[in-house]
Amino acid sequence: MTRVPFRFGRPEISALILGAVGTFIALACGLFAFQSAYLRIAILHHPDLRSAFVVLSTGCGGLFLLATWLWHRSDGVTPLVFILIAGGAFRILLLGATPVLSTDVYRYIWEGAADIHGVSPWNVSPDDAIMQAQGRRPATLPQSLLRAVRRHPAIMRRINHPRLPTIYPPVAQLGFSVAAMLQPFSLLSLKLVTLLADGLTALLLLRLMKRMMIPRCAIIIYWWNPILLNAFYNEVHMDVFVLPLLVAILLCVDRPAWLGAWLALAVAAKFWPLLFLPLLLARFSRRNALICLSIFVPVVLIALSPMLLSHDMGMKSLLLYSNLWHDNDGFFGLVRAGVGAAGGWLGMQANAVRLVARLLAASALGAVLATLLCSRLKTLQVHKQMLIVVAALFLFSPTEFPWYYTWLIPLLALWPVAALLLYSATLGLYHWHSLWPPVVWLEHLPVWLVLFWQLSRQFIPRWRKRTQPAMSGD
Question: Where are the alpha helices (DSSP H) in 219-285?
Answer without folding.
Answer: 220-223, 226-229, 243-251, 256-270, 276-282
